[in-house]
Amino acid sequence: MTSFEAQQVHIQQIYDRFWREARAPLARGEVQPDPIPGMESLRWGVSVIMRLRGEVAERLVGVIDELSRWTGRRHLRYQASNLHTTLQTIELYRPSIDAEDEYIQQYRRVLRQVAAQFPPLQIRYQGLTANQMSVMAQGWPVDETLRQLRETFHTRVRAEKHLPGPGIRDLAHASLIVFAGPLLDPTGCVSFVESQRQSDFGTATIDRLELVQYQRTSVYEAWPIVLDSVPLQG
């Protein structure tokens, strides 16, 4: 087995574990609503994202609309304008970041250096999975480019003075709905996700990376505020 094949097996195991552990609790309506982040929350920190566009985004927005029949609409539901896969979360959440923040300037410099070394990449989106916090479209890198890009960016950022954050990501999913409260129809939601476990949503070409901070003043919204946007052009 090649290292890439081993990576795909690892990703599959994680997506399957998410669903295996969440299926029964979700059917009982047991969700873990995602709160508005506070200082140093593990989620919603400054990140680099890969925004989805074109046919893949249209299909996933359609899935979100259909899924909303079962979850209800009082949740954080992604739209075409903010649908994405995260390349890397760099730091813990900070509620206020100045445009001239020294860390942001370092991240921008590293991002531009790394993006110049890598070509556009592709991610295939196939199947839904879920945990008790959200429903996700499973993402599958088509080759080693995404892993190499993540490792290079992570290594370069750690070589700079920076704030602490999570390690290197291994998944390439796109969150579709993040739960903010009870599900409208828990069994219907579980049945829908189960029916879409193998659905093919298409392959997205990622040709740009965006450094973002999140505006999260409501449990129903999470808007990425773009701090820098850099094309992949290696």
Biggest sheet: strand arrangement: 2-6-5-4-7
Q: CATH fold name, please?
A: Cyclic Phosphodiesterase, Chain: A
Global shape: globular
Strands, count: 9
Total domain units: 1
* Assigned CATH superfamily: Cyclic phosphodiesterase
Strand content range? 25-35%
Give the number of helices. Answer: 5
Structural class call reads alpha+beta
Just name the CATH architecture: Alpha-Beta Complex
Q: Oligomeric state of the chains?
A: single chain
The main pleated sheet reads as: 5 strands, antiparallel
Top-tier CATH class: Alpha Beta
User: How far from one another are the termini?
Assistant: 28 Å
What keywords describe this structure?
alpha+beta; Cyclic Phosphodiesterase, Chain: A; 234 residues; 5 helices; globular; 5-stranded antiparallel beta sheet
Protein architecture, described:
By secondary structure, the protein is α+β, with helices and mostly antiparallel strands. The chain has one domain (3-231): Cyclic Phosphodiesterase, Chain: A (Alpha-Beta Complex). 35% of the residues lie in helices and 26% in strands. It contains 5 helices and 9 strands; from the N terminus they run H-E-H-E-E-H-E-E-H-E-H-E-E-E. It has helices spanning 3-27, 54-71, 102-115, 145-158, 186-195; strands at residues 47-51, 76-77, 84-89, 121-130, 134-141, 174-178, 200-206, 208-215, 223-231. The strands form 2 sheets. The protein has a 5-stranded antiparallel sheet. Strands 3-1-8-9 form a 4-stranded antiparallel sheet, with helices on one face. Helix 1 (3-27) runs antiparallel to helix 5 (186-195) and helix 3 (102-115) packs antiparallel against helix 4. The radius of gyration is 17 Å and the shape is globular. The chain starts with a helix and ends with a strand.
